[in-house]
Structure formats: structure tokens, C-alpha cells
Amino acid sequence: MDVPYIRHARPSFLGFPDRNPLPRACARQGALQQDWWDAGPMVVVSDARFEELVAEALDGLPAELGRAMDNVSVFVEERSRRGNLLGLYEGIPLTQRSSGYSGMVMPDRITIFRQTICAAFETEEEVVRQVRRTVVHEVAHHFGIDDARLTQLGWG
Q1: Angle at the Cα of 117 (from 115 to 63), degrees rounded to 5?
Q2: Residue of 87, 84, 83 lying closest to 112 (CA atoms)
Q3: Nearest alpha-carbon partner for 34 in 19, 49, 14
Q4: Which among 25, 27, 53 has a CA at the least distance from the CA of 127?
Q5: Measuring CA to CA, which residue among 126, 154, 155, 120 is closest to residue 141?
Q6: To which H or E segment does residue 88 belong?
Q7: Is 54 strand, coil or helix?
Q8: Is the per-residue pLDDT at 59 higher than 60?
Q9: Where are the beta strands (DSSP E) in 1-128?
Q10: Nearest 5°: phi and psi at 102?
Q11: Is 20 helix (H, G, I), strand (E, B) or coil?
């Protein structure tokens, strides 16, 4: 059974167990497990190192933004089930919350997709830059900034 909303869950791809279309090299150091589709060269980044990159990107945000973030959780997953997304914001942006937003509301969710990022770049330095860019992009959605404006600002 797929459990896509638990941190570190490794859901199957389209419901086919062990048929994830990207090699697992990015997620785990050690022997490369080739699956049915070769994504080409990938940067090998351990689970722990990738999580450090995400934490460093969050820590690098201005303190005022960190304090203003409200009811949001950040997760790392292997890859998106919605295509080749690098990150995803799901929730109600701060600019759209009304007085009815209170009580037992589930947190907004920012997800950073490890394999998609690792497959898109050739060096760890490029992965580091993209993780930061993706975290900033998704946090901006939490603050109500849309993709068009992010593109104007150079974060699209």
C-alpha cells in the first residue's frame, strides 16, 4: 500500500511495486539498482545529506520569513507522482487565510523531490543550488507568491 504522506515513505510508481522509473542511486549510496528505465547519470546524494541541504536552505531564509511561516511542514520524498516536479506546495497561502482558518487545520505541506533534482543535474554543487532555489520557490508559494511573479523575480 502506498503511503505518500509519511516522511521517508517510498511509494511505488503508479501502483507497481519496485517499478520506480528512476535509479535509486540518488537516495542511497552503495550499489546502483537499475530499474526498467535509465534516467542517465545521476548525482549520488545520501538521504542524510539531501535532508541537510533542505535544512540548510530553510536556515538560509531571512529570520523574518522564518518567523512569519505558519502551520507548514517540509518533507523530502523520492519523486513526484505528478510529473517531474522538483518541489510542491500544498495548502492555503498566508495571503488567502481568513478568520475561519483556525483550530484543527492540517499544516500546509512543502515537499522537495530528491530523485527528480538529482537526476536533473551532474554535480553536487548544482544539486545544492537547485535545492535552495526549490525551497525558496515553494516557501514563496506559502506566502502567496504565484509562479508568474516568481519568474519575474528570477525564482521561477
Answers
A1: 120
A2: 87
A3: 19
A4: 53
A5: 155
A6: strand 87-90
A7: helix
A8: yes
A9: 72-77, 87-90, 108-113
A10: -165, 180
A11: coil
| Nine-digit cell string for 33 | 539498482
Task: Say which amino acid occupies 154.
Answer: G
Residue 124 burial (CB count, 10 A): 14
pLDDT, tens only, 94-142:
898 887 777 778 899 999 999 999 988 889 999 999 999 999 999 999 9
Pair 61, 53: CB distance under 8 Å: no
The CA angle 14-45-56, to the nearest 5 degrees, is: 105
What is the predicted pLDDT for the residue at 35? 39
Average of per-residue pLDDT across 74-89: 92
pTM of the model: 0.73
Q: Are 112 and 147 in contact (CB under 8 A)?
A: no
**And the C-alpha cell for 11?**
511509494
The residue assigned the cell 519568474 is 151
**For residue 80, how many other CB atoms are within 10 A of its CB?**
16
User: In a 3-state reduction of DSSP, which class is residue 138?
Assistant: helix
Give one word for 90, left, alpha or beta, with left for phi > 0 and alpha for psi -120 to 50. beta
